[in-house]
Amino acid sequence: MGAPLYIVDAFTDRPFAGNPAGVVTRAEALSDEQMQAIARELRHSETCFVADASEPGVDFHLRWFTPMVEVDLCGHATVAAYTCLAEEGRINFSGGIAHVRYATRRGVLSVWVEGEGKETRGVMMSAGVAPIAAAPDNRVDAARAIGLDPPAMDEDLPMAVDSANARLIVPVGRLEDLLSLKPDHERMRGYAEATGYRRFTLICRETLNPSFSTHLRHFAPGAGVAEDPVTGTAHAAIAVYLDWLGLLSEGEEKVSYEGEQGHAVGRPGSVKVEVHRRDGIITDVRIGGHAVIVARGEIEI
Question: Which numeric CATH code is attached to 132-286?
């Protein structure tokens, strides 16, 4: 038995950049063990498995696996998956955009796919609103655990925690320091085991592209990902972090910007971010971008 398999570079419009993901578009017959084995074989930070949904009002069921564990949500592999579903003619575009609902371990989520026929011009997905709070960690200890010189941290911004995703957010003052950082993976894993963090997201407000707002690096030792090139869910959490600090435009119901990531590992990419508010309160954060299919085939089960 075989299943359709794609390799897709997400958050980029050119091959061999952005964040690569595996996508299996017909995963109905696969067991949890088979999905984990496929993700381990592909060795991408995440592989997405798509099945037709049986629930009313839901189109697909998506699951994501790192080489080690299943995760609740993955931005770049979702953008990759819907690019592949459009390629297979399984997205019904109306007026150039399709609103698709899909089931996940987090519940039913929405994605908006722009395109025509079998081609996409971009994918935006709802990533929810991360619960951001001040981090109780000592700044010096956290910086050293990551491999960052403590004075390189942004003195004007606090560290924060995204408790829903066991994420520590660490602000870095200069882009030069962020890009030259050599992560201490062993020490980071030890700090993760001691504190319970599974993800470390570093943010700098200096950027290579002057039209972008943030530059990120992201490490996930708890999920077996040394460094993720371009991380959609990290950008979604950072959007809430910036709003929490009052650094996004106030009073607007929708704030849009772009963030960059991946340059430190030779996989540059960018993420579009939309912050939706009602009465000054964030109701949703959407992230997305482009993706490029670089390989098509079939994987033996």
Answer: 3.10.310.10
